[in-house]
Amino acid sequence: MAPSNPTGFDKSTLVEASTSRVWQSRDPWARAEQWRYTGPFTRYNRFRRAFPGLGIATVAFAAYLAYEAAFMKDEHHGHGEGHGDQHSGMESPGSAGGASSATG
């Protein structure tokens, strides 16, 4: 009967060696790769540095929205009084001579 793998490679031996605690304690590259997960390269620091001005921009935008809501209210817009005569070239819908007059 032919072997299941013609190269002689045993996948279970590789998995056991790469996940065992004994091998991890004897890993010669562990110290060389430790810098990747400490200091400025931690997951939190990498995420924080991906968006450097997001915190300041969010606070500034929220302050602008609060200022606009509190101090920049336009009380004269939308009432419908005083409009029509002040605008040049525009006629109100009920004025005579307009396209919407019902004469004729």
From TrEMBL:
Protein name: NADH-ubiquinone oxidoreductase B12 subunit
Topology class, membrane: Single-pass membrane protein
Compartments reported by the entry: Mitochondrion inner membrane
Biased composition (Low complexity): 89-104
Family, similarity comment: Belongs to the complex I NDUFB3 subunit family.
Keyword Ubl conjugation: no
GO terms, biological process: electron transport chain; mitochondrial respiratory chain complex I assembly
Segments crossing the lipid bilayer: 50-67
Matches recorded under InterPro entries: NDUFB3
Keyword terms of this UniProt record: Electron transport, Membrane, Mitochondrion, Mitochondrion inner membrane, Respiratory chain, Transmembrane, Transmembrane helix, Transport
Gene Ontology CC terms: mitochondrial inner membrane
Region (Disordered) residue spans: 75-104
UniProt main location, coarse: mitochondrion
Reported function: Accessory subunit of the mitochondrial membrane respiratory chain NADH dehydrogenase (Complex I), that is believed not to be involved in catalysis. Complex I functions in the transfer of electrons from NADH to the respiratory chain. The immediate electron acceptor for the enzyme is believed to be ubiquinone.
Compositionally biased spans, kind Basic and acidic residues: 75-88
